[in-house]
Specification:
The complex is a heterodimer of chains A (355) and B (227). With 355 residues, chain A is an alpha/beta fold. Chain B contains 7 helices and 8 strands; from the N terminus they run E-H-E-H-E-H-E-H-H-E-H-E-H-E-E. The chains are: A alpha/beta (355), B alpha/beta (227).
């Protein structure tokens, strides 16, 4: 199929349809409302359903219901909306239901502002909701990657029977880029007969299924949590994605950055290279599981003297970077979180001050 | 062939069709040809990539830019600057109103109806056939109808803005021209002009077009673009 020009938000909507998702529930919030605007037009064309919830709290449980019934389902929201959904996300993770959540992040905390930010890294990777659970978190750096990750998200959600999150800042949602929809990323829905409440009449087995997160017996609950942990450990073995940029060079500084911010860093690295200054970037594409080994190896390359995490936040992913570098190199941080995206020139000045 | 558009011009089109780049470049090019130009940002629905982001470069050229109060620049609130009604009452040689996308984005025009009805206005529909919902003639007609109902105004002309941003090829522009001619034949509306980025212009055979070509110098760029 030829390329089309799409906003990230529209492309995420179309990618969900191409991935076989026919259930989309949401509540509008800037800067991601175009997903709903797009899907309200497109879903009827594929016999799909769009329902606007009364609030994000309601939407979270609508997702739980549809996922528990074995349907491919997605919601999209932005930071404060995800906060409201976080209780349901914890329930969905505990009840082991596949669902896709998209967070097009705006500036926080509180109402913050509508411009792009990366201040929801902790919320996405360290919980957000309560209890011992993780989301598998994918962070696209552009519209094409947002398409591919959204399509993959449905497959991953079913593989691990749990919630998967696409974490994109506002610019990923708002900007337009040429995109195509790779057909090979669309997968057939998995067989959910052994766990989902998908209706006795639709399946051969007469076993009754129960979707729940309540375990009153301590031994049983501990076993349940060990089962969840085993899934997160498997993600760490099988799902890590990252990009190493200019990593073959004898770089003195390693940048860690993701999403929109990484594209600015890429330009800065290209411009520094023209001046004869070698800098590399390690860009996690999965924020959970985090590319721990790749960060450690890139940071401890012989030529590398120091590491800097550059984010549109006040310092969040840097904590994971520090954890992975294990004190082998100094780890610095630069961040802005008001909506202005640091320019390549700003990044160049910061790097030059480090060497 | 020069673009000879004067008076009050409203730029409409489906969401993401390139209205703002078209409006901003039409303002800049007309000003460079010596016209007195005013432009107003009426996009109340789009949170990013609006006329307001090209304010500085337009003002340097001497284009008068009417925007909501600075304090509300980054609010997703439907704020209409009172100066907009004023500029319709006292238009300059070229007065451009850059509307928001789809039917929702032009609802504001109905609110300006009292002022607009007393004037002769042109309303140009910008079409990029590589955008969702306007890849067919029927899609373009549907959007046109919805915009006309919401704005209570009629579309008077067409603009082809066929592009894939940095991945645009001459074929895309030729195909966009072929497409807009079909829309023109179906609707009876004239093609006012087509657009092409300054990067594309040297690669185009201008003899293939029987309408003016507006050169687009991208004003709304990504933060990682090399300067």
């Amino acid at each position: 199929m030829a390329k089309v020009l799409m906003k990230g938000n529209e492309a995420i909507g179309e990618a969900a349809i191409r991935a076989g998702c026919k259930n989309y529930f949401a509540y509008p919030i800037t800067p991601q409302s175009e997903v709903a605007e797009y899907l309200v037009k497109r879903l009827p064309e594929v016999d799909g359903v769009f329902l606007q919830g009364e609030s994000e709290v309601a939407v979270g449980y609508m997702i739980f219901g549809a996922a528990g019934a074995g349907e491919r389902v997605m919601t999209t929201s932005s930071s404060p909306g995800i906060s409201l959904m976080s209780e349901a996300i914890s329930y969905i993770a505990a009840a082991q239901c596949p669902a896709v959540f998209v967070n097009i992040v705006r500036c926080g905390p509180g109402l913050g502002g509508i411009l792009p930010a990366q201040g929801d890294y902790f919320q996405a990777t360290k919980g957000g909701g309560h209890g011992d659970y993780h989301l598998l978190v994918l962070a696209p750096d552009g519209v094409q990657e947002a398409v591919e990750m959204t399509m993959q998200a449905f497959t991953l959600a079913e593989k691990y029977r749990g919630p998967v999150m696409i974490l994109g800042d506002g610019l990923i949602g708002q900007m337009m880029e040429p995109v195509e929809f790779p057909e090979d990323l669309a997968t057939a829905p998995s067989n959910k007969d052994d766990w989902a409440t998908n209706g006795m009449s639709t399946r051969k087995s007469k076993k009754r299924n129960l979707v729940k997160s309540l375990y009153l017996d301590p031994t049983e609950l501990n076993a349940h949590n060990l089962n969840l942990k085993a899934k997160y450990d498997q993600m760490k073995r099988e799902e890590i994605q990252f990009e190493a940029y200019n990593a073959d060079a004898d770089y003195k500084v390693l940048i860690t950055s993701y999403g929109t911010m990484s594209r600015v860093c890429r330009t800065a690295i290209d411009l520094l290279k023209e001046e004869g200054i070698e800098v590399a970037m390690l860009r996690p594409k999965t924020l959970f599981p985090f590319p721990e080994k790749a960060v450690f190896e890139a940071a401890t390359k012989k030529s590398c003297k120091s590491v800097i995490s550059i984010e549109m936040s006040m310092g969040q992913m840097v904590e994971d970077v520090e954890r992975c570098v294990k004190g082998q190199r100094p780890v610095e941080f630069y961040g802005e979180c008001g909506g202005d995206i640091p320019s390549p020139e700003k990044i160049i000045d910061i790097i030059k001050a480090m060497i | 062939m020069n673009i000879d558009i004067k008076g009050i011009v409203i730029i409409v089109g489906n969401y993401g069709s390139g209205k703002t780049e078209t409006a901003v470049n039409l303002a800049a090019k007309s000003r460079l040809r010596g016209m007195a130009v005013k432009i107003a940002d009426l996009d109340l629905v789009n949170p990013y990539f609006r006329t307001r982001e090209a304010r500085v470069s337009l003002e340097k050229l001497g284009v008068e830019v009417v925007l909501p109060d600075k304090r509300y620049m980054h609010a997703d609130l439907p704020i209409l600057a009172p100066a907009v009604a004023g500029m319709i009452l006292q238009p300059s040689e070229l007065t451009i109103l850059d509307a928001g996308g789809d039917d929702v984005g032009v609802t504001v025009l109905a609110a300006l109806g009292d002022q607009l009805r007393k004037k002769k206005v042109q309303m140009l529909q910008v079409i990029n056939p590589l955008r969702p919902f306007t890849e067919t003639i029927e899609g373009c007609l549907r959007i046109k109808g919805e915009i006309e109902i919401s704005s209570k105004l009629a579309v008077t002309g067409l603009v082809s803005n066929a592009n894939l941003i940095d991945e645009t090829t001459p074929e895309i522009i030729y195909e966009g021209y072929r497409f807009i001619k079909e829309v023109s034949q179906t609707t009876g509306l004239p093609i006012e002009f087509i657009t092409a980025s300054s990067r594309m212009i040297p690669h185009l055979d201008m003899d293939r077009f029987s309408c003016p070509v507006l050169t687009i110098d991208r004003k709304l760029v990504f933060p990682w673009t090399k300067h």
